[in-house]
Each structure stands twice: as structure tokens, then as C-alpha cells.
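Let's practice the habit of predicting before peeking. Look at the sequence and jot down your guess about where helices and strands might fall. Then scroll down.
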Amino acid sequence: MNCDNFFHCQGNYDAVHLCEKTANDIRIAKKISDCREELQDPSSTDSQADQRANKFGRDGGVLVQYIHIWVDRNSTILLIVQGGK
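Done guessing? Here is the structure:
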């Protein structure tokens, strides 16, 4: 199971919402996420999905469940059940 987006979301949630939820906490969490993605290909599908999960976490969302539905050996459809706020 690929839990990459879960950890992006959770890390950003923790950085903002387990701290003081200040504008500075949000700015720093975003800057760290942006720097990490800039080291990869920021236009890649994976990087864009990471950034959506990062923002969802900073905004207070919590990804509570991942369900993989295998389509074939090379691709999956990932259903994300979102909860929280």
C-alpha cells in the first residue's frame, strides 16, 4: 500500500494544528513542503498529488482511510475517504 499522501497530509496537519495554528506555522509548513517538491519534478502527477495532500492537512483535513483497488499490475485507482475538520 502506498501511503505517501497520507503522510504528506498528516505531516502538514501536525506542523500547523499541533502547534499554535499561527500564520507563521502555516507559512513555514508550506515553505518546507514547496521546497521538498521543488527537488522533485513539481509538474509531475505525484508531486501535484503531494501538494494537494499537503494543503488539505494544513487546512485541517485528516485522511482517515486509503483503499486500493488494483486495476492491473502497473496502475491502481486510489480512493481516499476524507474525514475530519
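How did you do? The helical segments are 4-17, 23-39, 45-58.
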